[in-house]
Amino acid sequence: MNEEVELYLEDGTSKMDKVVAYIKDELSKMRAGKASVQMVDGLTVDYYGSQVPFSQVANLGTTDSRTLVIQPWDKKMIEKIEKVIFAANIGITPINNGEVIRLCVPPLTEERRKALVKQVKAKCEEAKVGIRNIRRDTIEEIKKLQKGGVSEDEAKDAEENVQKSTEQYYKKIEDICARKEEEIMTV
Fold it and tell me: Which residues make Cβ contacts (< 8 Å) with residue 179, sequence separation at least 6?
């Protein structure tokens, strides 16, 4: 197969991998009634003039399935971390005992579970749209190469490869979303 065509195929596959990684990351942040350290991923606190993630200033862990514990290494950081959690509006009120901050995740109601499943489906549809856009862009580039001298057979084979990749990535996204929906609906 033509070297340029292979480069476009690899680029498309690489972009599709990024979409799958993105959807995994986004869904891991969604609260499913269980405490996890991903709930505070992306939150940063001012630590002597620079913004750093919680994981760099405290131990993060779960004591049980419903409680996330944040234990700062520097006790002066407790109030700052608590303020960041309040400001982030993650839907959980932090409990500060002077040593650690506890985030107690309330059990989800059936109505809230259904709303979360809708959010999961919306995120999955976004990911599928991203995959379709990558497929379209890759096929357009292959067609441009065909006009520039790549044989029609090579172009058709490349388009078939792009379609196969698209179907594989669709399946991956659907599997990821099905697992998250099952996790959310499990009481």
Answer: none
Q: Does domain 3-29+109-185 have CATH number 3.40.50.2300?
A: no
DSSP string, 39-83: GGTT-EEEETTEEEEGGGTEEEEEEETTEEEEEESSTTHHHHHHH
- Each residue's pLDDT tens digit, 94-143: 888 888 888 888 777 888 888 888 988 999 999 999 999 999 999 998 88
Rg (CA), the chain: 22
Which residues of the chain, if any, have pLDDT below 50?
Answer: none
Contacts of 72 (CB under 8 A, 6+ apart): 57, 58, 78, 81, 100, 101
Q: Which of the four CATH numbers 3.40.50.300, 2.60.40.290, 3.40.50.2000, 3.30.1360.40 does domain 37-104 have? A: 3.30.1360.40
Compute CA distances 24 → 29, 70, 112, 148, 173, whole Å: 9, 24, 21, 38, 9
Quote the pTM value: 0.70
Query: Would you state the pLDDT for residue 187?
Result: 63
pLDDT at position 7? 86
Provide the 3-class DSSP secondary structure of residue 101. Answer: strand
Q: What angle is formed at CA 23 by the lines to CA 159 and CA 187, rounded to 5 degrees?
A: 130
